[in-house]
Amino acid sequence: MAGDGDRRGALRPLAPAQLYAACPQELLDFATTAELPDLDGAVGQERALAALDFGVHMQSHGYNLFVLGPSGSQRHRTVSEFLRRQAATAAAPADWCYLNNFDDERKPLAIRLPAGRGTQLRRDMAQLVEELRGAIPTAFEGDQHRNGIAEINQEFEDRFRAAMEELQQEAHGQDLSLVSTPHGFAIAPTSRGELLSDEDFERLPEEEKRHRTAAMEQMSAKLREHIERLPGWHKERRDRIKALQRELVSLAAGQLIEQVKSRYLEFPLLIAYLDKLRENVLENARDFLPREEVPPWLPVTAAQPSLSRYEVNLLVGHAGDEGPPIVHESNPSVQNLLGRVEHHAQFGALVTNFTMILPGALHRANGGYLVLDADRLLMEPLAWPALKRALAAREIRIESLGQLLSLVSTVSLEPQTIPLDVKVILIGERMIYYLLSQYDPEFSQLFRVAADFENRIERSPQNVRLYARLLGTLARREGLLPLTRAAAARTVEHGARLLGDAGKLTTRLRDVADVIREADFWARKDAAATVIDVTDIEKAIDSRTGRLDRMRAEIQEEIRRGTLLIDTEGARTGQVNGLSVLGLGGFSFGQPSRITASVRMGDGTIVDIERETELGGAIHAKGVLILSSYLKSRYAPDTPLSVSASLVFEQSYGGVEGDSASVAETCALLSAIAGLPINQALAVTGSVNQHGRVQAVGGVNEKIEGFFDVCRARGLTGGQGVLIPADNVQHLMLRREVIGAVEAGLFQVYPVSTVDEALELLTGVVAGERDGLGRFPEGSANGRIEAQLRRLAELRRRFDMPARNRRARGRSRNGEPGGSDT
Amino acid sequence: MNAGSPGRPRVVVALDPGGSGEFTLDLARHLAPPAVPELFGLLVENARLIELAGSTLAREFLLTGGERQIEAGRLDRQLRARAARVRAEFEAAATRLGLPHTFQTARGEPAAELLSRVAGAEALVLSIADEVRAVSEWYGEVLRHLLASTLPMILFARKGWLSGHGITVIGEDIARIRSALQLAAPLARYSRSPLSVALAGAAAAQRERHVEELGDALTMLGIVPDELIALRSAEASAVVATARARRARLLILASPAMTRDADLLEALVRSVPSALLAMRR
Questions:
Q1: 3-class SS at A722?
Q2: What is the DSSP string of A453-508?
Q3: How many alpha carbons lie under 13 Å from residue B262 in its C-beta half-sphere?
């Protein structure tokens, strides 16, 4: 390694204590979490809870809520518990019933009743129908009905018979025969009781013939008159019987219906309905008579009259409920939200009635709260527009998917709409919230309150104690063993590690809860344990990692076998170990990558091969452009940057994204320009800005551990280590093995703040600062870089001169103003 | 069509399209207890009607409102269609009730046709709609001939059987009433009808005693009527008044004098809708 001096010692590695922020057990003043009281609500979510509180109590239109935050952050549980507490202080909302509309059966009536009264109404109506089933047949079987019908029938039979006998006698008196035929009556002249033939008639004297003809005409007129009267008589008889029956049924049923009405006098709509029902009962009293048994040999049974039209469809009942409903709809399809009308097949057709109207989640939640997953809602066809329409109109209109899409033209029900008063709480990822805010103007009108759940909370002593309580609550709620103090502390540390930040704790409690569940499994498996100890937590964490470790192990093996080329010793010019993080289904790990740079004289172009091959993402490309700018401003402020360079992630066949390799790329490039070899025992991560400042990156723990694993596999030499941005030191929560190696002096982690520091560590050559004349010290890394760039600029100037002269001569011959060489 | 067994009591059922309901046969099956009678369905096509078809002077007035000449061909088709329908209904009902039966269509003078077929029969059931009866000039003549015959029973099967209330037996002497009750009691049990007995014509002084005797006699037979009534008179008006008041589903006349009285029967048929059974033996 060339250079004026080794300044590596001046840039000190981090002490072991800086690599892992242990949770001080003295913060936790309990033996096990069983001693801790339950923790209701979330830890560190004050902002979200305040938004929830505001949104739930704000009664104006459109103040529905969107709870945004990462999954697994206990949003559902927190919202549920919050709502449950709110609901405990309020009354249950109204019951809603659908009733038959006797004026138009296609449009069932919606009736609102106080909580519990809907159930009572349903019971009352069922009882009324039962009583009518008894009372009406009794009225029909009674003597009053029997005698009344008999009298009416007798009267009309007498009337008919009298008329016919009168006709018969008159016919007889006029020598006419009146006989019945299959379709009516016939008359013909007779003589002494015998029919008069045509010939006999012709032989009669003219006077006699005229007399006979007149008699026939007279009789015909009377017969016609009689026949014309018959339909009227039949109708009159039917009406009289109907009126009689109506009167009897009115006596029998009226009192029963009045009794029901007296219980609901304060509900005018219901009273009006009962009046209509009374009319309907009177008109259709025969439907209450016992049904005749239909012989089984009849091929088709006629539709039996149904009394279901007098039923009450209790759509939503809140009898016994103590507060507003909190409905979680896990399958928010249109029908599950808005309700639906079912059908059944009858004689080859689909039929329905108001009793087949089923409620949706909006009905069930009306007067309370409806909690929905935003992503599920948005994935259901037409569900989101349907929900918005209901919220905007503040009413629930039951429409089938077919109707919504105008695909169905068959007549169905059009139930009366029900006023909607509900707080909808959508729970979703932040991205969904931002997309809806951006692209759906109605969203902002209808979901005006955002309750933003934190991804992380401060790792303050108070929060650590609350976290421990939360762990205890989780364990208790799920019937797990309590955690010892050490186990709780280790879990807190794991909460920080999951976040990749030593000063914060994750709020994605699902992952933490998984660790506790699995620790409970291990504790119970190996011994008759009564607590979860720290070893169980460690085992749970390790086994989780182990189960997901296949890809990391394969990559490590490829590196160890030399298939993936990573040097961990020696020095190479233009080559550096970069670090990247691979995320695979919730598990991420670090992987070293070889980054190389090559340079030659050129026009200042730096080719990012990843970008050129479309393997690099936009952020990575941005990083390369930034380092390019840094290079120009730092080393060639007053001369053309006369170098062409190319940068590449060697053996990278997938995409590269992010700028966390830009320090490494810068160092590789500078190494290549200056011809300074880079120590391959070190790896580097960090992004760089235009001024050479090293900036924090993500996944620093995984990256360090990824390089450590490679070095450990090859044998730790003591010279190996990783350069990380100084700003990332606060994020370090490294594995025990790494800390052990650092404690043993076998591995180091260096914090760097500038590219110069990184360059010094990697090359072992002092970077050097410009002196008063603006020159870097001779022999310093920067001095060498600048000198090389100036040399290339001079070469380029000379190289370009003949071409410029040729162009100038050409312009002179053409009489054009010409430039001159400098 | 079933051929009845030799020696089986025969019941002639005079049919008409408007009157041949299944209830008629249901009633008829009880007319020869304990035997199951053979039913002989008879549809008489009035010869007078056939004659009308040959006359250009005759006119037919349809119940639907029109009027027309009577054409022989059309009338024949109508009559045959009507006969087929009546026969089908009769046979279907008889089969359902499990009764042996035969059916015949006769074309001729109604009284003569009917009388020629009731000889030796146990009973005649007149299943003829009131409307037809009212306009049938032959009906009165038939009735008079029947009453003069030795036919044991004549049943006027009428729809009052379906809508009336109870069975009422009216007679003038205990022996005949007892005899009638042999038939009426099972019928009352079968149709779940209250059974009433009216003793007519007893002298006032003996009336109470006769009713008591009748009660005892019936008790001996194991028959307990729902009501025992004493009528002051056996006059037609008293009988008709009683029948009207009771609105029975079946009225049984158990008196030879009454069952020979065409005017009484006519009056009863006119005044009450009940089915009427004249027991003449």
A1: strand
A2: --SEEE--HHHHHHHHHHHHHHHHHTTPPPBBHHHHHHHHHHHHHHHT-TTEEE--
A3: 11
**A599 contact partners, CB below 8 Å, separation of at least 6:** A574, A643, A644, A645, A669, A672, A673
Rounded-to-integer distance, Cα A765 and Cα A667, Å: 12
- Given phi > 0 = left and psi -120 to 50 = alpha, else beta, which region is B120? left
In chain B, what is the greatest distance between 2 CA atoms, to the nearest angstrom? 67
* Residue written as token pair 């700028």: A659
Q: In this structure, how many other beta carbons lie within 10 angstroms of the beta carbon of residue A422?
A: 24
Token pair for A330: 């896990």
Task: Provide the residue-wise pLDDT of chain B in tens; the chain has 281 residues.
Answer: 444 455 788 999 988 765 556 788 888 888 887 788 899 999 988 888 888 887 888 888 888 888 888 888 888 888 899 899 889 989 998 998 888 999 999 988 888 888 888 888 989 998 776 656 655 666 777 778 888 888 889 998 887 787 777 899 998 888 888 888 888 888 888 888 888 888 887 666 677 777 788 788 777 777 777 888 888 777 878 888 887 777 788 999 998 888 888 888 888 887 777 888 998 87
Chain mean position to CA A727? 37
Beta bridge partners of A596: A575, A648
SS3 B130: helix
State whether residue A142 is helix, strand or coil.
Answer: coil
- Asked if residue B180 lies in contact with residue B254, where contact means CB atoms within 8 angstroms, the answer is yes
Name the nearest CA neighbour of A310 among A129, A119, A132: A129
AA identity, residue A226: H
C-beta contacts of A210-213 below 8 A and 24+ residues apart: A212/A175
Q: Which residue of B has its CA nearest to A186?
A: B60
CB contact under 8 A, B58 and A186: yes
What is d(CA A767, CA A765) in angstroms, rounded to the nearest whole number?
Answer: 6
Structure-block tokens of residue A58: 């704000």
Q: Specify the pTM.
A: 0.68
Residues 6 or more apart from A331 whose CB is under 8 A from it? A376, A380
Secondary structure class of A200 (helix, strand, coil) = helix
Contact B208, B264 (CB under 8 A): no
Q: Could you tell me the two tokens for A619?
A: 């952020």
C-beta atoms of A143 and B132 within 8 A: no
pLDDT tens digits, A561-608: 888 888 899 999 999 999 988 887 677 889 899 999 999 888 888 887
Burial label, A453 (beta-carbon count in 10 A; 0-12, 13-18, 19+): buried
Give the nearest partner residue to B273 out of A153, A164, A196, using CB atoms.
A153
- H or E element at residue B142: helix B137-148
- DSSP secondary-structure letter at A577? E
* DSSP letter (8 states) at residue A283: H
Q: What is the ipTM of this complex?
A: 0.75
The encoded tokens of residue B214 equal 């009748």
Nearest Cα neighbor of A734 from A707, A695, A715, A696 is: A707
Q: What is the 3-state secondary structure of B158-192?
A: CCHHHHCCCEEEEECCHHHHHHHHHHHHHHHHHHC
Distance from CA of B65 to the nearest CA of A (A): 7
User: What does DSSP assign to residue A529?
Assistant: -
- Closest partner residue to B79 among A182, A187, A227, by Cβ? A182
Quote the CA–CA distance of A57 and B231 in Å, as a whole number: 88
**Phi, psi at A544, each rounded to 5°:** -60, -45
Residues of A marked active site are found at 660, 703
CB contact under 8 Å between A179 and B55, yes or no, is no
CB A683 within 8 A of CB A722: yes
Q: Does B130 touch chain A (CB under 8 A)?
A: yes
User: Which tens digit of pLDDT belongs to each residue from A520-533?
Assistant: 999 998 777 899 99
* Cα within 13 Å of Cα(A577), Cβ side: 33
- SS3 readout for A498-526: HHCCCCEEECCHHHHHHHHHHHHHHHHHH
